[in-house]
């Protein structure tokens, strides 16, 4: 099976980048080394719709080392690293269908080409592969053992499918693993989002007012990192508990309508639609920068911005400046898509090491438990989470204590009191 990439001549560059990332992914490398010997995925077909990055490439290499037949497509039109796609096809013989900037038709053609391998396990980043299977390729569902989902947005979609009893096979919510969201979402998104904003704008974070929409794990990490760079951080929220946490963490919490007038930089990380809407755009100051680090480009109401604007132009790569009727300029980054991937390289490999270890071990779990799971959304089994944390600590040469027999007995007893 032959993949589709922008330029096969980029394969050499892609291989160098993949090998560089691999040096920071010791957990995944240890799994790959073991699987090369044991081949636990032999005979399994895996269809993956993920961001085509250097880290994803090392996950694909690991699945192949385990014996699986794998095909990969992009989960976002602007997140593909073209040299990586070329190397996966030419160097690693892993069929990859991804071109940075592909239009909607090509995006879904690539999804269908991955589905043409008749996968038994799916790997998703946003649930577009699962959705396409259920709506346009339902004849393939009978062969599906299960799937994994990497993102908060995808898990929301899948839980909605489960609630309406239309989900046809079990999905493991990799996003909800502790070794995923506590590290990938918080430290990965926090660093990579600011990296994307800086690469796109070269704007000074220190002294600016940065508005974070959403105080989930991604929002927590972003707010923390922005404050560390000297920003005055405002948080907007709809959940009273998360809003209270943000206040206790030392951030200002305001409704978006109020924050809109104060912000220099805005970042949405909610997984919801029109978080920045027309009324907010009408209150923003001249030169405001708006960006999104949620999975889909719906968190900013871009059609409303286009209607309000009397002119627009590309001010820099990944920056479109819209001029409103009153002369104010609003700068949209990366077409409202994931700014950390569209304008930068995404999360550091060291944190994706744990996320993709979860993907690999969850695929192994699904294969071993084929036919035993109901069609619903499952948590990553705790032993997998614990093992990944143990392997990561070992790779960092960090040792921890273990319970003594006396301590184990104490924790399992109800008889010992004051």
From TrEMBL:
In which compartments does the protein localize? Cytoplasm
Q: Which reaction does it catalyse?
A: S-adenosyl-L-homocysteine + H2O = L-homocysteine + adenosine
Positions of the S-adenosyl-L-homocysteine hydrolase NAD binding domain: 185-346
Q: Does the keyword Cytoplasm apply?
A: yes
Pathway terms, separated by semicolons: Amino-acid biosynthesis; L-homocysteine biosynthesis; L-homocysteine from S-adenosyl-L-homocysteine: step 1/1
Q: Main EC class of this protein?
A: hydrolase
Q: Which GO terms describe its molecular function?
A: adenosylhomocysteinase activity
Task: Answer whether the UniProt record assigns the keyword NAD to this protein.
Answer: yes
EC number, UniProt record: 3.13.2.1
Q: Name the CDD domains on file.
A: SAHH (cd00401)
- What protein name applies here? Adenosylhomocysteinase
Lineage runs: Bacteria, Bacillati, Bacillota, Hydrogenispora
């Amino acid at each position: 099976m032959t993949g589709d990439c922008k330029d096969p001549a980029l394969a050499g560059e892609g291989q160098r980048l993949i090998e560089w990332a691999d040096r920071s992914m010791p957990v995944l490398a240890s799994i790959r080394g073991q699987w090369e010997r044991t081949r636990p995925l032999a005979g399994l077909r895996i269809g993956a719709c993920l961001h085509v990055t250097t880290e994803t490439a090392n996950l694909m290499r690991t699945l192949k080392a385990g014996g699986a037949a794998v095909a990969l497509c992009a989960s976002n039109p602007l997140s593909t690293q073209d040299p990586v796609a070329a190397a996966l096809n030419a160097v690693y013989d892993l069929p990859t269908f991804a071109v940075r900037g592909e239009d909607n038709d090509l995006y879904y053609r690539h999804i269908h080409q991955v589905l043409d391998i008749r996968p038994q396990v799916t790997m998703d980043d946003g649930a577009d592969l699962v959705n396409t299977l259920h709506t346009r390729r339902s004849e393939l569902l009978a062969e599906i053992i299960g799937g994994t989902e990497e993102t908060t947005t995808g898990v929301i979609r899948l839980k909605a499918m489960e609630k309406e009893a239309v989900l046809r096979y079990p999905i493991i919510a990799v996003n909800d693993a502790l070794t995923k969201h506590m590290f990938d979402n918080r430290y990965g998104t926090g660093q990579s989002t600011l990296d994307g904003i800086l690469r796109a704008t070269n704007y000074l974070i220190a002294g600016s007012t940065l508005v974070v929409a959403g105080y989930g794990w991604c929002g927590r990490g972003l707010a923390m990192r922005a404050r560390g760079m000297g920003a005055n951080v405002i948080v907007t929220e709809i959940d009273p508990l998360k809003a209270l946490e943000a206040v206790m963490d030392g951030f200002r919490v305001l409704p978006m309508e109020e924050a809109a007038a104060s912000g220099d930089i805005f970042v949405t990380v909610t997984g919801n639609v029109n978080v920045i809407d027309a009324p907010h755009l009408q209150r923003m100051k001249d030169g405001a920068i708006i960006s999104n680090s949620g999975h889909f480009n719906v968190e900013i109401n871009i059609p409303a911005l286009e209607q309000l604007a009397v002119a627009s132009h590309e001010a820099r790569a990944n920056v479109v400046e819209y001029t409103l009727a009153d002369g104010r300029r609003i700068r949209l980054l990366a077409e409202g898509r994931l700014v950390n991937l569209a304008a930068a390289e995404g999360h550091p490999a060291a944190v994706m090491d744990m996320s993709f270890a979860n993907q690999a071990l969850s695929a192994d779990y699904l294969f071993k438990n084929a036919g035993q799971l109901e069609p619903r959304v499952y948590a990553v089994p705790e032993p997998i989470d614990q093992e990944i944390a143990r392997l990561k600590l070992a790779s960092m040469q960090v040792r921890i204590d273990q319970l003594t027999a006396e301590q184990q007995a104490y924790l399992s007893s109800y008889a010992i009191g004051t």
